[in-house]
Specification:
The protein has 364 residues and is an alpha/beta fold. Helix content is 36%, strand content 18%.
Length: 364
């Protein structure tokens, strides 16, 4: 079955929903209360990027516009790669990305940024990536990294394969073929997923970490919503997906060290908190070097950190002020709590939020 059509259809619906939210914040899902009851800010911001960040963006936009009624924020969840490309080209005022800018991208000329100014990565959203599946009668699946790698590489082809059965004693697994569902677009979720497998299943996953899916296996779908729809539509399917999009699907436990761990935002946040900031970048660029091999109790190292990508200094000072105000709101305790409620993400730790706020203060 070719499931690409699901991704296209659902992505269009998701984009429409988020655009409507941006234009009519009072009709949105429950959102954070804005930190200011009114402001003199005016104008429009356009963001493009991560579909995993989409649910959080909907919540943030609604809250921000409540306190800034003369500002319109639009966010199009085309995917992380599209967001970064659009931002570099100047067709977006900010990007949402589940992967920080690469060194080669940082060397680009950012059209919206002032001469001599580059872009910065601001971590604003932390979420576990789920191994979600649709197998009738199976609700408590356990998988280790090499088995996940084999499934998504296509070398483990049926649900009752010994590699799966050996970790799931007492579970009746069907002999049916496994339908792998993966992202069709340039995806930060794919980048994080493949980084995890590259670190924890090197003997199986021989492709480098990448934002494009590396193996010719399974069915492709666009965006988080497209992957969710495709997995729900296909019996005996499995996918990697931001937890915010996994509602209605079963989620596997992940073997971390010697124990199997249930997915949790807290476990993902703990991995981020213990991971260092990437070195060799500007002081206000807060790309995080995630420890994919964290085996601490209840850790969930299959985690993504999603970033707002902005200019250090904008050509248009008024645009810079709007982006700065929006970013400052996004990292506020109110906005982080609202996103956690609506998207299942983990709020930034106090220490990380403080670092991000200090970086936002430098935006001009």
């Amino acid at each position: 079955m070719n499931l690409k059509r699901y991704g296209v259809a659902v992505a269009i619906l998701a984009t429409a929903a988020i655009s409507l939210t941006a234009c009519a914040s009072n009709e949105a899902a429950p959102a954070a209360t804005a930190t200011k009851t009114a402001s003199n800010l005016t104008g429009t911001l356009n963001g493009i990027g991560s579909s995993a960040q989409g649910a959080a963006e909907t919540t943030w936009i609604a809250g921000f516009q409540t306190g800034n009624p003369n500002v319109t924020v639009n966010y199009d969840p085309q995917g992380s790669g599209a967001g970064r490309t659009s931002f570099i080209a100047g067709s977006a005022d900010f990007a949402g990305s589940d992967a920080a800018l690469k060194t080669t991208e940082l060397a680009s000329t950012f059209v919206a940024c002032a001469a001599g100014s580059s872009a910065i990565d601001l971590p604003v959203y932390i979420s576990p990536i789920a191994i979600a599946y649709n197998v009738a009668g199976v609700t408590n699946l356990k998988l280790d990294a090499p088995t996940i790698a084999g499934i998504f590489k296509g070398t483990i082809k049926t649900w009752n394969d010994p590699a799966i059965a050996g970790q799931n004693a007492g579970v009746t697994l069907p002999s049916a073929p496994i339908t792998v569902v993966h992202r069709s677009d340039d995806s930060g979720t794919t980048q994080n997923f493949t980084e995890y497998l590259s670190a924890n299943a090197k003997s199986v996953w021989d492709a480098p970490a990448s934002q494009t899916y590396p193996y010719p296996v399974g069915d492709a779908a666009k965006g988080t919503s497209g992957v969710a729809a495709a997995t729900k539509a296909a019996a005996n399917s499995i996918a990697y997906i931001d937890e915010s999009g996994a509602a209605g699907l079963s989620i596997a436990q992940l073997k971390v060290g010697s124990s199997y761990v249930k997915i949790s935002a807290a476990g993902a946040a703990a991995v981020v908190a213990a991971s260092p900031i990437t070195t060799g970048r500007a002081a206000n660029d807060l790309a995080i070097a995630l420890n994919r091999m964290d085996t601490s109790k209840n850790a969930w190292p299959l985690v993504l950190v999603s970033y707002l990508i902005t200019c250090q200094t904008y050509k248009d000072a008024a645009k810079g002020a709007l982006v700065k105000a929006y970013a400052d709101y996004v990292v506020s305790p109110e906005a982080q709590k609202a996103a956690a409620s609506q998207a299942g993400s983990a709020p930034l730790s106090t220490a990380l939020a403080s670092k991000v706020s200090a970086a936002i203060a430098t935006i001009k």
